[in-house]
Amino acid sequence: MLCSVRKLAITSLITSSVILSAQQTFAQKFSSSEKKEFKKREDSLKTFAYNIVFAPETDQRFRADSNFVRMLVRALRLRNSFNYSFDSLQTISRLYSPDSAFRIFTWQLKKDEYTYFHRGAIQMRTNDGSLKLIALHDVADFSDKLLDSVRTPKNWVGVIYYRIVLKTFNDKKYYTLLGYDDFSTASTKKWMEVMTFNENGDPVFGGPYISFKEDSLKKPVQLRFNIEYKKEAATTFNYDPDLDMILFDDLVSETNEPTHKETYIPDGDFQAFKWEKGQWVHVNKVFDFKLKDGEFPREKTILNDEGKPDEQKLLEQSLKNQKKQDSTNAPKKSGGN
Fold first, then answer.
1. For position 28, what pLDDT does the model report?
2. In terms of C-beta distances under 8 Å and separation of at least 24 residues, what long-range contacts does 282-291 make, across chains too?
3. In whole angstroms, how far apart are CA 149 and each of 161, 211, 221, 225, 280?
4. What is the dihedral of CA 193, 198, 202, 206, to 10 degrees?
5. Which of 163, 149, 165 is nearest to 208 (CA)?
6. Which of 308, 244, 309, 306 minimizes the C-alpha distance to 273?
7. How far is Cα 192 from Cα 161, in angstroms, rounded to an integer?
8. Burial of 5 by CB count in 10 Å (0-12 exposed, 13-18 middle, 19+ buried)?
9. Buried-most residue among 25, 158, 174, 262 (CB within 10 A)?
């Protein structure tokens, strides 16, 4: 039952993020014959995309994945495929960059209850509508330095991406990727890393972009960042356009076992990263940073991964702020009689 709920949650996350991305894409007119051909290819892909996630047996999922990859590449070879959204592939994340320079396909392939592989590819937008496709090879299970290594498509840290945030500094573009990893039977990870393109136009994942310079306890710059938490816990880790920050839950161990990430749940506070001079700088207390004592957060400032207001977290934060205000306004006791 839990496995089915998890699959449905992943599908919902992908669908919501793709809808958000689709709002950023540009309109494209296809001829009736082009539309018919794309729709035909999409219909063929849809069954394989579904079976990658929902087929009951491992060999069925792997066979569906193999067929899907071959058919997807054939479909993308059609002229101007970049502009076709493949909306019905709801188990496959398809995110356009905010400037429509590229899109990223990512999805998850389950081997067993303990092992997940991630697949991915970047399709670049080309002037003549031809295909430029960059395959991403997940090696996360074979590397123990995921947080402190700059990577290429050949040694990608595989995740399902649900958000791309575009920032600039000194006329260079920085694409921050937020992603989901169904990490283990007990815990889940969400990732944040910056992707850039080098002088050859090749993607580079990670770099010295995650700073903790404003923290009281100084930490070195990280090349990417993640959170890990209890499988059943609902967490926020997303870009908030109103705050212009990447907002995420403050996590604590519900069993007071800080070394056991599978026990981590949200405690009602929020941390964040703000973009400053080419780095994401850590903000330890979001509402101390943004709000005055006792001021309630605006409705749009706490969002879930679907970009919608998280009513439960709004309530929790409001109650917390109210308690703080009541404590501040309470009369002080005199020293004696």
1. 60
2. 282/210, 282/211, 282/212, 282/214, 282/215, 283/214, 283/245, 284/214, 284/215, 284/216, 286/243, 286/245, 286/247, 287/317, 287/321, 290/243, 291/321
3. 19, 15, 12, 11, 17
4. -20
5. 149
6. 244
7. 9
8. exposed
9. 158
What pLDDT is attached to residue 316? 56
**Predicted pLDDT of residue 193:** 96
| Residues constituting the chain | 337
Residue 191: per-residue pLDDT: 95
Given a cut of 70, whether residue 296 has pLDDT beyond it is no
Contacts of 316 (CB under 8 A, 6+ apart): 268
Q: Pick 246 or 287 by higher pLDDT.
A: 246
The residue-averaged pLDDT of 17-36 equals 65
Pairing status of strand 160-169 against strand 172-181? antiparallel
- Collapse the DSSP code of 54 into the 3-class scheme (helix H, G, I; strand E, B; otherwise coil) and give the result: helix
Average pLDDT of the segment spanning 54-83: 96
Give dist(CA 166, CA 149) in Å, integer: 22
pLDDT tens by residue, 256-282:
999 999 999 999 899 999 999 999 999
